[in-house]
């Protein structure tokens, strides 16, 4: 048996891990899009490193685009097998991939308008028709069920606590009478998350693919999030009379923000200013989360006893049309605008940042991870000037961050996730989904707690297991 790492290898995005059995069956774990990696992003998304038509099965950990965003391209290029995911993940994938297809088409049209005549015509990575075909290949598998894919391969999902529907993937693969257990963590959430249940324990594995996004970081305690939001909104909107611009992922982060702001209203602390969610995708994702209350933790269930709408509060407006979105930039009144994407790499948020970055009255609030090469990452790094839509802008607005809102676990959470394992029984632990320097530090922590064999795969590197 072999395993190859075709994405999220010494990098955070582009999740693709390919297991090849001795009889040439292939199991692909995730098929994500590379994001926020500068000029090389398009090149990375154009090359799989394997033949999609030779992949037998595909297992999806969760619906974030850096884990599912190239599925339609996989199908377009010849993959005909089943795609296994939890039911909430299927609901989210439907809206996220349709949105992604529209972006691919728009990007291709933009590039073609600005190309010289002799250049080749730019084609979208995939279209909405490719998404529809992809969705027809999905099969739902519930948490905590042993699902027999075929006579050699059994699949088991446990809750990873990252976003609604997120799962750690556990495969039992039998070859020549011997069963090997492989676990892929997917993205691991927080223990004590604002909304979701904590990650579940899982059975002993022989090989583990472990995410390491925050393998060198400790998040601050979750309790002060409401207080930090309140302080930033008060100082910006009520004192300076400015706007708070919040780049937030449509799935997960936006709902956490709304829940925290709703908590302020329940305590009669919410500032009396307009709050806008300017992202049609975020609106749909919020509805999906409402439809899956089984993922909520006990704290949220207690709040639901006194407030039936945990994502709604006074002053909140959802913006859908482009005209409404543009009108926010013409309105000088203080307000809070939450818009996608979380790394500020695309969507309406770039317009809001462009229109508000030049005033010291305003605050750009980052609420989670952003790749260092992304616009959000450059803002978090304290750059004095950033490029938006091919123009340079001085960063006059205040840039703040609440890193504790990350949906990724810190190194204590990641070690907690692995605490159900007997380290000496793990033949190899592979670190994925992390920047190389971070992974090196996390590898040392893992060895300190008994994991002797820790590898940090390179892009396209293959191992015998």
Note the main attributes of this structure.
465 residues, alpha/beta, Metallo-beta-lactamase, Chain A, Rossmann fold, 2 domains, seven-stranded mixed β-sheet, 30% helix, globular
Protein architecture, described:
- The chain is α/β, with parallel strands linked by helices.
- The chain has two domains: 274 residues, Metallo-beta-lactamase, Chain A; 181 residues, 3-Layer(aba) Sandwich (Rossmann fold), CATH 3.40.50.
- Helices cover 30% and strands 21% of the residues.
- β8 and β9 form a beta hairpin.
- α4 runs antiparallel to α5.
- The longest helix is centred in the N-terminal third of the chain and has 27 residues.
- The termini are close together.
């Amino acid at each position: 048996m072999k395993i190859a790492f075709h994405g999220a290898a010494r990098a955070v995005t582009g999740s693709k891990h390919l297991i090849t059995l001795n009889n040439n069956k292939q199991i692909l774990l995730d098929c994500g899009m590379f994001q926020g990696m500068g000029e090389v992003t398009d090149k990375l998304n154009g090359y799989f490193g394997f033949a999609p038509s030779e992949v037998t099965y595909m297992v999806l950990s969760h619906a974030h685009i850096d884990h599912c965003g190239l599925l339609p391209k996989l199908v377009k290029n010849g993959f005909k097998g089943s795609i296994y995911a939890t039911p909430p993940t299927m609901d989210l994938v439907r809206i996220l991939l349709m949105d992604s297809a529209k972006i691919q088409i728009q990007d291709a049209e933009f590039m073609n308008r600005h190309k010289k005549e002799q250049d080749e015509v730019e084609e979208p990575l995939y279209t909405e028709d490719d998404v529809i075909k992809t969705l027809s290949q999905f099969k739902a598998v519930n948490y905590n069920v042993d699902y027999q894919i075929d006579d050699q391969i059994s699949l088991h999902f446990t809750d990873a606590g990252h976003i609604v529907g997120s799962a750690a993937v556990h495969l039992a693969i039998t070859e020549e009478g011997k069963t090997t257990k492989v676990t892929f963590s997917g993205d691991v959430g927080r223990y004590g998350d604002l909304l979701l249940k904590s990650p579940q324990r899982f059975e002993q594995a022989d090989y583990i693919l472990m995410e390491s996004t925050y393998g060198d970081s400790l998040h601050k305690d979750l309790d002060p999030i409401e207080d930090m939001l309140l302080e930033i909104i008060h100082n910006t909107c009520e004192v300076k009379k400015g706007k708070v611009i919040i780049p937030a992922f449509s799935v997960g982060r936006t709902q956490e923000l709304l829940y925290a702001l709703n908590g302020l209203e329940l305590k009669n602390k919410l500032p009396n200013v307009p709050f806008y969610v300017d992202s049609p995708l975020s609106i749909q994702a919020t509805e999906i989360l409402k439809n899956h209350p089984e993922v909520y933790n006990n704290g949220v269930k207690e709040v639901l006893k006194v407030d039936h709408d945990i994502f709604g509060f006074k002053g909140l407006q959802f913006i859908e049309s482009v005209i409404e979105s543009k009108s926010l930039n013409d309105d000088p009144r203080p307000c809070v605008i939450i818009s996608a994407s979380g790394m500020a790499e695309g969507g309406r948020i770039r317009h809001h940042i462009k229109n508000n970055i030049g005033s010291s009255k305003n605050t750009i609030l980052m609420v989670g991870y952003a790749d260092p090469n992304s616009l959000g990452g450059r803002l978090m790094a304290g750059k004095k000037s950033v490029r938006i839509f091919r123009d340079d802008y001085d960063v006059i607005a205040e840039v703040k961050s609440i890193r504790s809102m990350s949906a990724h676990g810190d190194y204590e959470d990641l070690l907690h996730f692995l605490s159900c394992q007997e380290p000496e029984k793990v033949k190899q632990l592979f670190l994925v989904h992390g920047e190389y320097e971070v992974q090196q530090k996390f590898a040392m922590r893992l060895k300190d707690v008994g994991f002797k064999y820790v590898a940090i795969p390179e892009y396209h590197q293959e191992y015998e297991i």
